[in-house]
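Checklist before submission:
- one chain only
- standard amino acids only
- sequence pasted in full

Submission:
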Amino acid sequence: MKNNLYVDIHVLQNVPPSCINRDDTGSPKTAKYGGAVRARVSSQAWKHEMRKRFGEILDKDMVGVRTKKVPQMVADLIKEADSSIEDEKANKLAQKALENAGIKIDKNGVSSVLMFFSTAQAEALARLSMEGCTDKKEYKKAWSAAPSLDMALFGRMVAADPSLNFDAAAQVAHAVSTHAVHNEYDYFTAVDDLNRDEESGAGHLGTVEFNSATLYRYATVNVAELWKNLGDQAADAVKYFAEAFIKTMPTGKQNTFANRTLPDFVYITLRTDQPVNLVGAFEKPVSGTNGYLEESEKRFREYAAAVYRKFACEPEKTWKFGEMDLSRILEGVQCAVREKLSESGGE
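Returned file contents:
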């Protein structure tokens, strides 16, 4: 594409007492911003849930696989294509195909690192191996073509061979609370059901750390980069990405807190200059005892207007939850992106 084109997604979401994303000590993740401790949910946690969502709403061929068991998957595809091939031969063909593609296989018959690949890429490797191809360039080409939708969005890094990398078309920010938080502790006990009446006391004691927050969440999609890898599927991918980002939530301690909520405010923009994260609206923590959402939304709108007035261009198009329902927003974004791509001829 000749022009820059970005889709920015901004979300405000209330989350009740929860521990949806923990650090190495089991505490809810936090970050200091604007001099105050904020609740935080890592981008990795949210992207993991988004990839799971893709698996639910998209065809299998559109979703990638991240695993060390690449040889087994390729071997299964070989046997699926020709049932007369025995397991041992299929495994040897698969391992040879991956070695030709530059993927190291360890003594346990798995790749030395987690690999992210599409079904189409695995099928191409299986086909080349069954055809008896010995040209390593063809195997590399197969491993580098036909990325899945989530691979085009989130990227792929192969440290051992950068030629196999895919640049991510999407960026997801760590979610942070619009206000300061103080982690709390839930003290709980479990009763031994077989205790007799004279046996008092709990069978188990413990604590769970938690907090509650109004989160600001942000993500952006570089449509030009997405089009480069997905072509005509780019507009659909933006819609699927937006839907997954808006509707998912990491599931840490979900059974304990049943904290699953949906966003209270969604604001999506189509920009032709650059992505703009508007977290600065909350550099000064929102305060008060009557809830944070109303003030957070007010702060967000005022800050966005100031940024557009002083620094960045007004978005080419905007969609706001409340003015229309989510399904219409997603369709509107999809159509606007497709129209822009059509205007530029995909260049």
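Reviewer check: The longest strand covers residues 204-222.
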